[in-house]
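Lecture 7, part B: from sequences to assemblies.

Below are the input chains for today's worked example.
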Amino acid sequence: MNKLKNLPIFKVINVNRLALIAVMILMFIIFTIFTPILRGGASFLQIEKLMSALSYSYFIAFLALGVTFVIATGGIDFSIGPVMFASALISGYCLTQYNLPLILCVLISILVGLLFGTLNGSLVSYRFIPPFITSMAGMQIAKGLGSVFTKTQSVTWPTTDKALAIKYLVRYGNIPTGLFILILVAVLCSIVLNKTKIGRYMLFIGSNREAVRLSGIDTKKWEMLAYMICGALAGVAAIFYVGAYTTVQPGLGDTFNNEAIAACVMGGTSMAGGIASIFGTVLGALTIALMQEGILSMGFTISYQYVLTGIIVLVAVIADVSSRRRKN
Amino acid sequence: MEQQEKETLLQAYYDTEEIAQRKALLTEYIEAAPEDPLNPLREALFALRYQGREDADKFLWHYVNLAYVYKNAHSRFFKKSAQREFAESVQGLGFTLADAYEQAGEQALYREYRNASKRFLTVCAADKSYKRKMLGLASITDKQTQEKMAKDVWVLSSGLQQTFPEYSVMFTPFAQANVDAFADLYQDAAQLLTSIQ
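Predicted structure of the full complex, as structure tokens:
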């Protein structure tokens, strides 16, 4: 195994990420073989299925990218899914009921996410409330706020000229435009996390908070910024969600928390904080989207996906904990 | 003041971690022993470490950062930036400040680093974030904390020396200070470090 680890490929791509790519290829092969068997000739190898999987991956990836910053600081945000839904509901309501311009509604969506991120971040950093409790409360507030704002009605984003640009953000015909935007945002996140002092502060807050604080760094400020980035990206995720599915229902969204967190952990971000991988997170989100599309394609219900996501989170966390134990 | 008293004063300076107290002790020592040729070096190290602030120990930043630099130095993507950052830390920790003082200067560097290492390791041992696992819902045991610290000490001594051999000689006082400060804290330090090697 050590000889394998010395191969040049492992200096370019981490073992975890390479394993994730292998899992994706394996899943692709399994779905390709079993879909025709279980669904009487239906094929998994269709451009529409690939586009559908990609559409699902975008908003999961944006959520996961945001929560990667928070987990890097040693925290957690369980409110991202409901915040995404609250952002989509409030901005969609503004678009359909108040006829606000589309660009303004997109900004409202990001702003709603940012406000939730700021609220969570300030409570965790400045009031020392555990992230677990804060984000659980944030989750309930986001669910409630979305419902109150829309008077418990679901909101359907129009697919006409008025909001067509949102659909084109996700895909333009068979061109996966969302993928280009995702890559762009992921590169930006990677630069922030790996190449800037801000990213370094966030990582060190997760691993050696007290030493960093004593070195004169304002740890509270940078920890709060991680939550703000997470919230803003939940607002961005909302735009990609409505671009793919148009209708948003109030009181939902919490199932996407697990998927986003699973994407992070699968990608190599440590649940203990201090270690994060943006590339791994994107790979994790793509894996989850592929799994979701494959399960549906084989004729199973979405409930099976929840079971599988839960198992994946557990396996990823156990792998993270045991690899840490081994390293120590 | 007798030579013995001066040395006691100097030792107190190197034993103390509190910044304001260290400043007072250094001033007192310089007044008591103005003839000591290492005084300018001690002052330069003090200025470099605290940069005029009483709430910031810049050496601690380098300790945390160097462990990260070590990891990056083994990545194809981040190798160059790791080399650049290591060179910055060499400046930031004042490795070159003692060049003009020969052996005595190296000893002064060692004593300053040992003080900083002790502070760093004490902070690590008490820091919840250092012991955190599973989103902070659980902590590693004291034994695991020791092992984690041993790994960090190994990185900050042998690990970095092996990774950046061109700096090996000037790195020696820093590396030795880390190992000795760890040994001050734990009786089985040597055994823990050997198990990592």
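Note for the exam: DSSP finds 14 helices and two strands in chain A. Keep this in mind when comparing with the next example.
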